[in-house]
């Protein structure tokens, strides 16, 4: 009965044109207890394909969590220090020109306290290098925003981390992440070309225009998948933007749930260690917390009040990052939003519970305050989905 009721509630979100498609996987007591989906991974006139829990979506900033895992694996293998000058790993000098005497470290990149910002953008053409792209505009200049103490959420931080991974591992970013998770036999990838012969497994991302969903990303059902880059002549550590360490991971809710289970079990999956517990301890603890008196950070849509190494810590603060009005949830994980997609990957690794939720398009303006939840800075639709998940499976 519960399963049908949940299915009906999800379907109502589709019927009301609030979302184009949704895929959810829920974990309770260290096991998957629910898989739900509704809507479509493809909407093309009369040609529609249903959303499934095996649909691969570009999950936006959840990708950062995986990039951080890659960095921590290098740290475990003594290939990198979290507190050395990143210039040593990149092969060129990186300094905030306004604080030239302060070293920028890997830890600062991971925790978004490097003073690097996205004011000059972060999408770098394949012909250019990161070194060429960085400019004075890419750095905070206010005295209180110097490296190491002020939180500025930046995609550019994670492009730099991708380059560091390539230089220290001497392997392409996408291949290194694949190798890290190889024992789990998952099919996710940072390389869109890996899906060239399995396009129907991909989900299209949608924006809303004139009350209709319009493809905004990954519409390879009608567009030819072409690489405007020659991977045969790819140079390591120069510009990993094609792989998008900040947001280009394509993965399903089922595979994200498998990764979540591995994390809940101290980095071990079916008897094989993927990442050490000590690395996870470092990732999951807070390395920056918002202090209103010090004004020590930009809260990224008022949703990030605490951040670790590639991970967000939910503080359960009303009107900011509170996930539920029925239960105090102090989860860790990551949120994502881009090209119409909204994604959530949050869990409590000690209680061994959590959820994955992927929506491939919303039928409203995310920036409109009328669409914001009553208890957090998330949208009302995200809040509705969390309530459905929580009330039926987690509370």
Task: Report on the architecture of this protein.
The chain has a domain at 42-72 and 173-225 and 233-340. It has ten helices and 15 strands. The chain has helices spanning 2-15, 62-76, 87-90, 106-110, 130-133, 155-169, 173-180, 253-264, 277-284, 380-394; strands at 21-28, 31-44, 47-50, 57-58, 205-209, 212-217, 250-251, 268-269, 272-273, 288-289, 306-307, 312-313, 332-338, 341-348, 353-359. The strands form five sheets. Strands 3-2-1-15-14-13-12 form a seven-stranded antiparallel β-sheet, sandwiched between helices. It has a two-stranded antiparallel ribbon with strand order 4-7. It has a two-stranded antiparallel sheet with strand order 5-6. Strand 13 and strand 14 (341-348) form a beta hairpin. Helix 1 packs antiparallel against helix 10 (380-394). The longest helix has 15 residues, at 62-76.
């Amino acid at each position: 009965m519960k399963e049908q009721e949940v299915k009906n509630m999800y379907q109502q979100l589709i019927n009301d044109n609030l979302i184009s498609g949704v895929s959810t996987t829920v974990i309770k007591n260290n096991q998957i207890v629910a898989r739900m989906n509704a809507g479509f991974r493809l909407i093309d006139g009369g040609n529609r394909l249903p959303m499934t829990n095996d649909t691969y979506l570009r999950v936006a900033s959840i990708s950062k969590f995986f990039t951080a895992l890659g960095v921590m694996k290098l740290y475990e293998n003594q290939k990198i220090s979290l507190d050395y000058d990143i210039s040593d790993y990149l092969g060129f000098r990186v300094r905030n020109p306004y604080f030239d005497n302060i070293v920028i470290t890997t830890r600062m990149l991971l925790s978004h306290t490097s003073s690097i910002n996205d004011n000059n953008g972060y999408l770098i053409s394949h012909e250019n290098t990161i070194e060429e792209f960085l400019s004075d505009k890419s750095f905070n200049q206010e005295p209180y925003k110097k490296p190491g103490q002020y939180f500025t959420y930046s995609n550019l931080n994670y492009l730099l981390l991708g380059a560091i991974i390539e230089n220290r591992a001497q392997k392409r970013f996408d291949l290194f992440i694949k190798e890290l998770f190889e024992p789990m036999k998952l099919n996710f990838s940072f390389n869109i070309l890996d899906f060239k012969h399995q396009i129907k497994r991909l989900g299209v991302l949608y924006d809303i225009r004139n009350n209709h969903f319009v493809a905004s990303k990954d519409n390879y059902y009608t567009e030819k998948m072409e690489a405007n880059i020659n991977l045969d002549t790819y140079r390591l550590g120069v510009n990993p933007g094609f792989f998008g360490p900040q947001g280009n991971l394509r993965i399903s809710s089922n595979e994200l749930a498998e990764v979540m289970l591995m994390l809940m079990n101290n980095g071990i999956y079916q008897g094989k260690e993927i990442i050490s517990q000590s690395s996870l301890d470092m990732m999951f603890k807070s390395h920056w917390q918002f202090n209103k008196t010090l004004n020590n950070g930009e809260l990224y849509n008022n949703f990030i009040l605490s951040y670790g190494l590639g991970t967000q810590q939910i503080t359960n603060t009303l009107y900011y990052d509170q996930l539920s009005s029925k239960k105090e949830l102090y989860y860790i994980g990551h949120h994502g939003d881009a090209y119409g997609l909204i994604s959530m990957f949050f869990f409590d690794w000690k209680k061994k519970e959590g959820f994955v939720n992927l929506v491939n398009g919303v039928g409203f303006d995310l920036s409109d305050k009328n669409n914001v939840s009553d208890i957090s800075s998330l949208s009302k639709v995200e809040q509705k989905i969390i309530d459905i998940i929580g009330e039926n499976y987690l509370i």
